[in-house]
Design a protein that fits this description.
The structure holds two protein chains of two kinds.
Chain A lengths: L1 H19 L2 H13 L23 E10 L6 H17 L4 E3 L15 H7 L3 H8 L7 H27 L2 E3 L3 E5 L6 E9 L5 E6 L5 H5 L10 E4 L2 E4 L10 H8 L4 E6 L7 H4 L3 H8 L2 E11 L2 E3 L4 E3 L11 E4 L7 E8 H10 L3 E2 L1 H5 L4 H20 L13
Parallel strand pairs in A: 1-2, 1-10, 2-3, 8-9, 9-10
Antiparallel strand pairs in A: 1-14, 3-5, 4-5, 5-6, 7-8, 10-11, 10-12, 12-13
Chain B lengths: L2 E8 L8 H17 L4 E3 L22 H9 L3 H18 L2 E3 L2 E6 L2 E9 L5 E6 L5 H5 L2 E2 L6 E4 L2 E7 L6 H9 L4 E6 L7 H15 L2 E6 L2 E3 L2 E3 L4 E3 L11 E4 L7 E8 H10 L8 H8 L7 E2 L5 H4 L2
Parallel strand pairs in B: 1-2, 2-3, 5-7, 9-10, 10-11
Antiparallel strand pairs in B: 1-16, 4-5, 5-6, 8-9, 11-14, 12-13, 14-15
Helix pairs in contact in B: 1-3, 5-6
The chains are: A alpha/beta, B alpha/beta.
Chain lengths: 397, 310
């Protein structure tokens, strides 16, 4: 009998989630939102595909969305959330709109009762256990079960919003059951949509946080590039920006803009925040868009100041910042014009010059050896530690 | 608990009118810092042989890096040997490790920027050569090295970065992958040297590799160029007050100054335990793509192995 009731419960849940994630209703709703948006009446139709310029523009207006973490109970509610933020950027004239890491997390609210569990929990692990009625479950299990429904909401919403607003959208990420980069696993995945609503690219996070590895996520294995309005871009995700390697790879592939969706789980400190996209942009001579998740969910505090950054020599204040959010904990949309001409002139005057003979003297095997050495030293330290000052334990995710 | 007391000694070359005065300034500074407990003393870029050009007038038309190359051309092999003897004696008499700044050394086809590391026994135990250059440096004749050795100093492993190397993350990574817990950087940046430019250099290397960083930055005037010293000791932000990532710095307007800072590797271990950056390398990705990233780019001119060791 328990298996029969369990089966009934699963079927009911399936029907509920299927209903809440129906793409047709979502797309229709976004079209309605756009039609009734008085700010956008001057634009009568979405941009047709033929107007997409393959030529690199001199300047481009871009937007980084600073999004407040929340949960939504339906696909329509998620559509309203994403439309509201993207339309704000589009109204400011942005042609590229970037969302943060975990931009798909609000969709866990599709699961009945999860909102209360998340609000009262001190961690995602705890919330997952509550939602699973005490049965053993990891966050990855919850997200995997939700994946078929959340993915169709996520992709249909961003595709429709990009089409209705006639902009490029870099979606941030959501955690999906994914088979495109090796064996099926839960990965941070994001998408790029063009002004026609077509999917232009898919990207994934290639360096995980320890907590994410603990939850059973797997890293991605590539740094794909894509063309947004004539500009080559890539989207390394949050923790990827702790490592210079993905940015070197991106720059070699012709990237001019890196878009880094982030969800930084720690109290805000400008110097902690400086460890990410800012130095990477300096080293690789690119523009950077940092879109941050902010707010608190399941005991996790996300902070960050979304920004548009560039090499310090071409920044207005000499600090490598073109524009930045005024807060680290509130919803904002940061918009700025970036000059590709200025970037190319800067690169011509200050070309990166490498030493391949040097690099060839050091095998890539050093990475594995250093990882092993540090891990062993860390374990030894853990065993022997008995005193000392405190160290903050969180870091950019 | 492995720790190292490391100090930076800034000397304004313009204040030393003769080579003798320069040596007196170095001797006094090294001695003072040794009495303060310094085990390793580091001096900025160009100071290795700045004393050799003390009091000399730069020929008309020579400025910037051309003047640096001109100064290097004045130093004969025997003069270089004399200066090395002097630094060896300073290290020996004060029982410290000493890296007395870098210098351009003539080689066939140009120069290399080199720094020597002296032991408390007065022996040269290591040499570092700049491995990345700007177009301007190359135009002035600078050639690059092709190795980044690490050295054991007391209980700590260190790597030395020279000038432009600091802004190439590959250099700090190679040092850290070889086990360096401390990276010392000898820089000389014409004013203005902003906090942002420095943050893009050694500060971020310390963060990205979870190592200590000591930047000894030339301050004052030399060969007609004014340098903006920003000598600082860096650590992972988790290890520092306010999370700034700075353990010590020369903040006064003085162009001859010093500091000594205690570097405790337990601090690094705590930061690494809090977030193991090296534990999350995506090595498959690097194997697939990173080497190719350097195939289509501009490359520096390198010195031949024989010439680098002249």
């Amino acid at each position: 009998m328990p298996s029969f009731t369990s089966s009934i419960r699963k079927q009911l849940l399936h029907h509920l989630l299927a209903n809440r994630s129906r793409p047709e209703g979502i797309v229709r709703h976004i079209r309605t939102l756009r039609r009734h948006d008085s700010r956008l009446q001057r634009v009568s139709d979405p941009v047709p595909e033929s107007t997409a310029s393959p030529v690199r523009p001199s300047t481009m207006r871009v937007a980084a969305v600073q999004m407040r973490i929340c949960t939504v109970r339906s696909g329509r509610a998620y559509a309203e959330l994403i439309y509201r933020l993207a339309a704000r950027a589009a109204c400011a004239g942005a042609s590229v709109v970037a969302f943060p890491e975990y931009s798909g997390l609000p969709l866990v609210g599709l699961v009945p009762g999860i909102g209360r569990a998340l609000a009262g929990a001190s961690s995602l692990d705890e919330a997952t256990a509550v939602a699973a009625s005490g049965e053993p479950a990891r966050p990855a299990d919850l997200l995997a079960a939700l994946s078929p429904y959340s993915q169709r909401v996520y992709t249909s919403v961003f595709s429709a919003v990009a089409r209705e607003l006639g902009v490029y959208i870099v979606t941030g990420t959501m955690v999906l059951h994914d088979e495109t980069e090796g064996p099926a696993a839960m990965r941070h995945v994001g998408f790029v949509y063009g002004p026609t609503g077509d999917r232009l690219a898919r990207y994934s996070k290639s360096h995980l946080m320890p907590s994410e590895a603990h939850w059973g996520f797997e890293p991605g294995r590539s740094i794909p590039t894509f063309n947004i309005g004539g500009v080559v871009a890539a989207a390394p995700v949050c923790m990827d920006a702790t490592y210079f390697e993905p940015f070197r790879i991106a720059r070699a592939a012709g990237v001019d803009i890196v878009i880094v969706p982030s969800a930084n789980n720690e109290p805000y400190n400008v110097w902690y925040a400086m460890r990410g996209i800012w130095p990477r942009v300096q080293e690789a001579q690119m523009f950077g868009l940092s879109s941050c998740m902010v707010g608190t969910l399941a005991g996790m505090e996300f902070t960050g100041r979304s920004a548009i950054v560039c090499p310090i020599d071409i920044s207005p204040g000499g600090d490598g910042v073109v524009a930045q959010a005024s807060s680290h904990d509130d919803e904002e949309v940061v918009t700025a014009d970036i000059s590709l001409d200025a970037l190319y002139a800067y690169r011509a005057a200050n070309p990166l010059r490498f030493n391949p003979m040097l690099y060839s003297n050091y095998s890539v095997g050093l990475y594995a050896a250093a990882r092993k050495y540090r891990t062993e030293a860390g374990n030894s330290h853990e065993r022997s530690k008995n005193s000392g000052g405190s160290v903050r334990t969180s870091r950019r995710s | 608990m492995p720790s190292l007391a490391c100090g930076v000694l800034e000397i304004d070359p313009a204040l030393q009118v003769t080579a003798h005065e320069y040596r007196l300034a170095v001797s006094a500074g090294v001695s003072r810092m040794a009495r303060s407990g310094a085990q390793l003393i580091v001096m900025p870029a160009h100071l290795g042989l700045a004393g050799a050009s003390a009091g000399r007038s730069v020929p008309a038309g020579k400025h910037g890096l051309d003047a640096v190359a001109w100064a290097a051309s004045l130093v004969s092999a025997s003069q270089l040997s004399d200066w090395q003897d002097f630094y060896a004696a300073s290290a020996l008499s004060n029982k410290v490790y000493l890296c007395p700044g870098s210098y351009w050394a003539p080689v066939e086809g140009g120069y290399v920027n080199r720094a020597d590391l002296y032991s408390p026994k007065g022996e040269i135990i290591g040499e570092a050569i700049q491995t990345h250059s700007t177009e301007q440096e190359e135009k002035a004749g600078l050639l690059c090295g092709t190795s980044l050795p690490v050295f054991r100093v007391a209980n700590m492993t260190l790597g030395i970065e020279l000038a432009t190397d600091v802004w190439y993350p590959e250099v700090g990574r190679i040092h850290a992958l070889q086990g360096a817990d401390l990276i010392i950087a000898l820089t000389a940046v014409p004013a203005p040297y902003t906090v942002w430019r420095q943050t893009a250099g050694l500060w971020q290397i310390a963060q990205a590799n979870q190592v200590f960083g000591i930047e000894a930055s030339l301050s004052g005037s030399w060969l007609g160029t004014t340098y903006h010293g920003r000598s600082r000791a860096f650590a992972p932000v988790e290890c520092t007050e306010g999370g700034r990532g700075v353990l010590a710095e020369i903040t006064s307007d003085s162009e001859s100054d010093d500091f000594v800072v205690q570097l405790d590797t337990d601090m690094l271990k705590k930061a690494r335990a809090a977030f193991p950056v090296f534990g999350h390398f995506n090595i498959d990705l690097y194997v697939d793509r990173l080497a190719d990233a350097y195939l289509t780019t501009r490359t520096v001119k390198v010195a031949t192995p024989v010439e680098r060791r002249r």
